[in-house]
Amino acid sequence: MGIEVVCAMIVKNGRVWMGQRPNHKHMGGFYEFPGGKVHDGEGEEEALKRELLEELGVKAEIVRRLGEVEYAYPEKTIRLIAFEVFTQNRIDLKEHIDERWIEWTAEAHSDWAPADRALWHAIASVRRAE
Q: What is the DSSP string of 17-64?
């Protein structure tokens, strides 16, 4: 099993938030759904709330678990777990260098981190049911 990573699909008005990773980080320049590693002794939802507060300065209300995908990068394998999230807070770019809101029905783009693209495809049936 890979490194457990949780991510948020922050949904507002039928669109989902994505942030661009800083160039000096792993997968720099690619867009991703915000989140991070689950620490030892931490639950998935607890980890996601912590990460969103650290990265975006938002308090998150987790709506539901959407699905997961395992993705093997050359240097590591991750298990990326997605949650639909709601927040009323303004998003503050603490870790990301750019942001975009994509349509809930959008196709994945080549400038998305590969694991995030794979996850988006994996939860397509959930998104289509909306």
A: EEEEPPTTSTTTT-EE-SEEEPPTT--HHHHHHHHHHHHH----EEEE
User: What are the two backbone dihedrals, phi and then psi, of residue 26, each rounded to the nearest 5 degrees?
Assistant: -55, 130
Tens digit of pLDDT for each residue in 67-97? Answer: 999 999 998 999 999 999 999 999 999 999 9
Quote the CA–CA distance of 53 and 59 in Å, as a whole number. Answer: 6
* Amino acid at the residue 27: M
Domains and CATH numbers, the chain: 3-128 (3.90.79.10)
pLDDT grade, residue 130 (50/70/90)?
Answer: low
Tell whether pTM > 0.85: yes
HSE (side-chain half, CA atoms, 13 Å) at 29? 3
**Three-state secondary structure call for residue 74:** coil
In angstroms, rounded to a whole number, what is the distance separating the alpha carbons of residues 130 and 111? 25
